Amino acid sequence: MKHFLSVNDVEDIDALVNKALQFKMNPLVSQQIGAGKRIGLVFLNPSMRTRLSTQIAAENLGMKAIVLNVNQDGWMLEFEEGAIMEGSSVEHIKDAAPILGTYFDILGVRTFPGLKDKEADYSEFYLQQFIKYAGIPILSLESATLHPLQSLADIVTIEELFREKRKPKVVLTWAPHVKALPQCVANSFAQWINAWGKADFVISHPAGYELDEQFTKGANIEYNQDTALKDADFIYVKNWSAYQEYGKILSEDKNWMLTRSKLATTKQAKVMHCLPVRRNVELSDEVLDSACSIVTQQAGNRVWAAQTVLAELLKAK
Amino acid sequence: MKHFLSVNDVEDIDALVNKALQFKMNPLVSQQIGAGKRIGLVFLNPSMRTRLSTQIAAENLGMKAIVLNVNQDGWMLEFEEGAIMEGSSVEHIKDAAPILGTYFDILGVRTFPGLKDKEADYSEFYLQQFIKYAGIPILSLESATLHPLQSLADIVTIEELFREKRKPKVVLTWAPHVKALPQCVANSFAQWINAWGKADFVISHPAGYELDEQFTKGANIEYNQDTALKDADFIYVKNWSAYQEYGKILSEDKNWMLTRSKLATTKQAKVMHCLPVRRNVELSDEVLDSACSIVTQQAGNRVWAAQTVLAELLKAK
Amino acid sequence: MKHFLSVNDVEDIDALVNKALQFKMNPLVSQQIGAGKRIGLVFLNPSMRTRLSTQIAAENLGMKAIVLNVNQDGWMLEFEEGAIMEGSSVEHIKDAAPILGTYFDILGVRTFPGLKDKEADYSEFYLQQFIKYAGIPILSLESATLHPLQSLADIVTIEELFREKRKPKVVLTWAPHVKALPQCVANSFAQWINAWGKADFVISHPAGYELDEQFTKGANIEYNQDTALKDADFIYVKNWSAYQEYGKILSEDKNWMLTRSKLATTKQAKVMHCLPVRRNVELSDEVLDSACSIVTQQAGNRVWAAQTVLAELLKAK
Question: Which of A11, A203, B27, C278 lies 20 to 30 Å from A171, alpha-carbon distance?
């Protein structure tokens, strides 16, 4: 694995999932493979779970991790080719990235979409600049359109909990939110579940919230949430802003919030969310505080997902 | 020791003090007991000494420490039960704390009082939420009403310096300040000195600055600072805002600032302060720059206090 | 070496340079000499390269490093002697530095000049306060007037690349910028090149930009950039504000920007810059993106310079 930017960098999802579950059983089993290696964690946007889980994962492999918060401390990066840097940006990515490539063995990068220019966001402009100029393996810590470490942790969690022989029914359902959010978590989950191929996958959202087909192709789209949830084994709740009318909030319909009563027709479905979650907006307290919520386990599995991917990146070096 | 929130979590103060002095002699003597363990240091309010001393203490025990500054980086926590999270808070403590409990073995937490709602502050609402939801040992890094790591370091410092057979006279004296400060350091010092029982303890302050009796009961209150300081062996200088008229500044009387001339009637008293100190407001330069000041030694002992408590928490796990 | 504040703290520059190149070959060769030691990195001003390279250098020697950003998190330091601290400063350097001296074995400090009061800046007031009160070796991470870790890395880079028997011609040339910058990098480079004595050294800048002679004495000053660049082997591009008319921007002449055509008369000169660089203001894209730019290598050598100096400071303790 040269970089880890999406499921397309993965040869064998099941092998990754199994490896992650092994790390969960024995976190320090590979403490030597990262000895003397160093990862830089560059955040163009803030993070809690991703920062902690990746840092812990790196340490479990014997690596050192150093966090860098860009755009704080006066360190504003310029990304525009040919820019005459007379403004507030103090350093160009063309100069910063190669040096990070000198200081580190792997570079984790988090970028966010602006949600204004679809083409720029979906070209992964910022992430691509890091790939182009750093010269070392890049680990996506969430990019403009995808969040592959989250998706791997999601599949690890489903694999861990579902013990029946049949395929689980997995429903990704849109939920209301107070802000316009990226599509990354939803895009990435769809892309991974499709590539994994071991679930009956349904996506449910109000009309207008269709995701980019390059990620969802193969999934059933069901506009009626009740219909979608029927017989569900896992429900992934997540808000995203519109992809077609890019970055727009098209619905504030509170009926899309997942509540206890909606679980009645499911197969005692487990409820997932990548967190942070807006309680009583996306998901009701009664669901989150019940035994059907597996959000903590899901977030806990972020460590093992990151550790597995880091181990792959180290192996390839 | 399950948690470390106050002196009430301590079985044997003398044993802790002795252990701390042993760690001071040999910081790395127990470098194995924290191997593979991890502490999260969550600051809802900024910190210098507490952050550094706890981080160093953890590393001396072989632990890894990771610092998290809440309410920075857009990570605003919600604490209200049943909140409909449509505002600026992005994550509820009910979701954040269990995950921190998954990522860490021990969680250090610093909270501050709002100084507006006495009941809320004195219920230790924020700290209690972490205890309730994290599911791992909580180490208070200063809470709304107490600062037990500071108090342990204070007693270590007194024990280290006082070599006579009689009980030392220890005076906690109020000092002016430009801001309304919490009562925690004073509350906690009173609580620990009372529980320790090895000092003649006097508290001196202007009328109206009486502390909560649950912490001070057993101490002499003396409103005349000159009378209080007579024959003192140790003088702990500290500002706090009023407890009765909660959070109010009732006096700006500069005569309460500790100056050199006030030390004349003492037994060459050593002067303590938890730092940071407002020079020439709380304490005069001439005192702080003289040999009677032990504030640096006191702050240095924060490491050994933290190391001792962490060792206890690790033992109990 | 007791402190590392300038080239004056160095007995043998060549020995340092050779040591740095050895560390570059084998970064972990001295991993034991810092075991159990701890460095605090105090930034009164932000930093990327210096923070990372020093942190990595310390870890390569087995040390622990902890970063402290002063003036953030409400930790405002007071430096004025005798101050009545009724304002926004919460802690005096006289109290903070001794405690840092207790917590750490070495203290790295970055300060910046205000560029308003030449005498205060050139007395290195802030740095001197740390030296006076911390009581442990101080490592300059760039001060008001000098940047010795940068200069050592600069000389390491020249030594590494220049393989001829004759002396290289090294030209330090002023470049335009949008802000008034300190003179430190230029001062320090001049001071080191002069002390090193192994280069023909020319400084070129518009009239009025003469640097302090205590650093430049011995170098040729050439006001015509074209003349200065002729036959150059290394060109160090850097902006600084005026020293005489202190802190002023006297020229915005874009002709001083280093472009490709200006390299024609050089001996295939290598182009240096300490970074961050304002592209197409100080240096053109065509130069920075060409093979003659060695800025990444130069920044990479910051690690080995820092590691060498830390090893010296540890040896002296």
Answer: A11
Q: How far apart are CA A171 and CA A280, in angstroms?
A: 20
Domains C7-146+302-316 and C150-299 share a fold: yes
Can you tell me the mean pLDDT for A121-149? 97
Verify whether the Cβ–Cβ distance A66 to C46 is below 8 Å. Answer: no
Spatial CA neighbour of B3 closest among B188, B150, B146, B138: B138
Say if residue A275 carries a ligand binding annotation.
yes
**Single-letter residue type at B314:** L
User: Which chain C residues in 23-52 lie under 8 Å from chain A, judged by CB atoms?
Assistant: 27-28, 46-49, 52
What would you measure as the largest C-alpha separation in chain A, in angstroms?
A: 62
Look at residue C317 and tell me whether its pLDDT is greater than 70. no
DSSP letter (8 states) at residue C73: T
Reduced to 3 states (helix: H, G, I; strand: E, B; else coil), residue B234 is strand
A71 to chain B: closest CA residue: B73
Q: What is the pLDDT, as a whole number, of residue C191?
A: 98
Residue C73's pLDDT is 58
Check whether domain B150-299 has CATH 3.40.50.1370, yes or no: yes
Architecture field, domain B7-146+301-316: 3-Layer(aba) Sandwich (3.40)
Q: How far is B11 from chain C (nearest CA, A)?
A: 29
Locate all alpha helices (DSSP H) within chain A, ordered by sequence. Answer: 13-25, 49-60, 93-103, 118-122, 125-134, 148-161, 184-196, 213-216, 225-229, 285-288, 295-316
Sheet with C138-140, side-by-side order of all strands: C64-69, C38-43, C106-110, C138-140
Are B95 and A288 inside 8 Å of each other by CB?
Answer: yes
Q: What is the pLDDT of residue A44?
A: 87
What is the ipTM score, two decimals? Answer: 0.95
pLDDT band at B69 (very low <50, low <70, confident <90, very high): confident
Strand partners, C270: C234
Domain spans in chain C, listed from the N-terminal domain onward = 7-146+302-316, 150-299
Q: Where are the alpha helices (DSSP H) in chain C?
A: 13-25, 49-60, 93-103, 118-122, 125-134, 148-161, 184-196, 213-216, 225-229, 285-288, 295-316
Q: Is the Cα dihedral B287, B289, B294, B296 positive or negative?
A: positive
pLDDT tens column, C173-226: 999 999 999 999 999 999 999 999 999 999 999 999 999 999 999 899 999 999
Q: DSSP state, C282? A: T
CA B23 – CA B26 distance, rounded (Å): 5
Location of structure tokens 């504003």: A76
Q: Which residues contact A105 (CB under 8 A, 6 or more apart)?
A: A37, A38, A39, A63, A136, A137, A314, A317
Going by C-alpha positions, the residue among B8, B48, B14, B84 that lies closest to residue B308 is B14
Among chain B residues, the shortest Cα distance to C103 is held by: B300
Report the alpha-carbon distance of residue B315 to residue B214 in Å, rounded.
30
Chain B residues in contact with A281 by the CB 8 A cut-off are 84-86
Q: Which CATH superfamily is domain A7-146+302-316 in?
A: Aspartate/ornithine carbamoyltransferase (3.40.50.1370)
CA distances from A156 to B193, B288, C7, C146 (A): 52, 58, 56, 53
Tell whether A309 is within 8 A of chain B (Cβ). Answer: no
